[in-house]
Amino acid sequence: MSTSSRSNTGGEIPLIGPKRRLVQWLASLLILLIPFVRVGGDSLLRLDAASRTLLLFGARIRIEEFYLFLLATLIFVFGFLLVTMLFGRVWCGWFCPQTTVCDLADWLDARVARLPKPVAAAVRHGGYLLLSFLIGSNLVWYFIPPGEYVRRLASGELGMVAGITLVSMLLLVYLDLTLVRRGFCKTVCPYGRIQLLTTEAGTLTLEFDPERKDECIRCAACLRACPMGIDIRDGLKIECINCGRCLDACRLVMAKGKRPGLFHYTFGGSGGSPSALLNRKSILLAGVLVLLTVVLALGVTHRREATVKVQRSASAEVKRLSDGTIVNFYQVFLENRSTQAAAFSLEAAPVNGYRVELVGPVRELSLAPNENRKVDVAVKVAPAPPANMALEIRLMRDGKVIATSPLPLLVN
Ligand code: SF4
Ligand code: SF4
Question: Atom 4 of ligand 1 has which residue's CA nearest to it?
Fold first, then answer.
């Protein structure tokens, strides 16, 4: 893909557009293709609503561990704010799917403009609907794997929640393309408003060269190129998405007179400097980001590789044997949260003055990665313990305690 154009005089005109389009396509393809990528037989990234589990790079994060997910979300949000402080609305112009979809719709409109009106309208709206369906499906793929989605859709068994999500997204995108488009970025999108809080004296922005204002021939090419319909010659505007189209348009116009374009990217505008970004706000933001990242890293590295939970067995009563031994019955739930198969065993923690015995299939419990297992066990305690005695079950691996859980004890 060429990133420059040739001027009348034969010189190369460096253009931003091809680079921006490449980034836009790669970002959109990434969002589309992530649901197809599998790691260890599971989706790379998917929220499995049925089991309330987030599948993330081969790990299964259950609802009880959602603090990790929350931390990752906070890191994403704070990282986003920091990037906006440094590079302005570069996300909007270069990465945002809304911008890419609007660009595609603009491209389609231009292609069908010369067709007879009814044909153009049919092709246009057909294209919008197809795009909307693809985007709606893409959203559902982050909850239902694409293969299963196609099977369920074809057999009419998509399910109510997935069906409502698909239809709602399809309608939203279709209405967006038909009625709103860039109006969404100008008025509805909260990210544009957030930018008001994050813009600093050194934030990257597009600037109309203040020293060469007189060279402007008022051709309005920059205005026509701007998808947001703004005139940045008057100064930075909140609607500007840093897409660089005005810059390219002016470069092409000015190249005819062998002069450079009148716009350029700059940190902080004339008189500004990137060093202005080193202020209290950015340092605080970066500090919070580092802190959250450290907490997440600690959370992930100290994440238990397996868990054990205990529930009294509802179907069996407490037994008192003739020698006074008390027997309680439990259901023990094991989960191997690691990405490796492992063999576990269960033990009762010793209690001074008592013999605590675990009876049942408690040795060599092999669990595949992310596998759950329910084990029925009995716990014998002798001599007869007091009602408030604390018992504990231990999940062991290679002689080490991996996890523990209290055993609720009944004596009669
Ligand atoms: S002013 Fe320039 S960079 Fe900003 S949105 Fe318009 S064309 Fe894009
Ligand atoms: S494209 Fe350049 S020369 Fe034409 S109006 Fe805009 S700033 Fe002026």
Answer: 240
Give Cα 92 to chain centroid, integer Å: 16
Position 382 in a domain: yes
Q: What is the DSSP string of 339-352?
A: SS-EEEEEEEPP-T
Q: Domains in the chain: how many in total?
A: 2
Residue matched to tokens 């020293």: 211
The CATH number linked to 391 is 2.60.40.10
Q: Is residue 113 part of a domain?
A: yes
For ligand 2, atom 8: residue with the closest CA: 216
Residues with CB under 6 A from ligand 2: 216-222, 233, 249-250, 253, 262
Q: Which ligand is nearest to the CA of 254?
A: 2
What is the whole-number distance in angstroms between the Cα of residue 249 and the centre of ligand 2? 8
- Decide if 15 is inside a domain: yes
d(CA 180, CA 79): 29
Task: For residue 373, give its domain range.
Answer: 306-407
Residues ≥6 apart with Cβ < 8 Å to 234 = none
State the pTM of this model: 0.76
213 C-alpha to ligand 2 centroid (Å):
9
Cα 151 to Cα 164: distance, rounded to the nearest angstrom: 17
Same domain, 185 and 319: no
Query: pLDDT per position in the chain (412 positions), as tens?
Result: 445 666 555 568 899 999 999 999 999 999 999 999 998 788 999 998 877 788 888 777 777 777 888 898 899 999 988 988 888 888 899 999 999 999 999 999 999 999 999 999 999 999 999 999 999 999 999 999 999 999 999 999 999 999 999 999 999 999 999 999 999 988 888 887 777 778 887 888 888 998 999 999 999 999 999 999 999 998 878 888 999 999 999 999 999 999 999 999 888 766 667 777 788 888 999 999 999 999 988 987 787 889 999 999 988 889 999 888 999 999 999 998 876 789 999 999 999 999 999 999 999 999 987 788 999 999 999 998 888 888 999 999 999 999 999 998 888 7
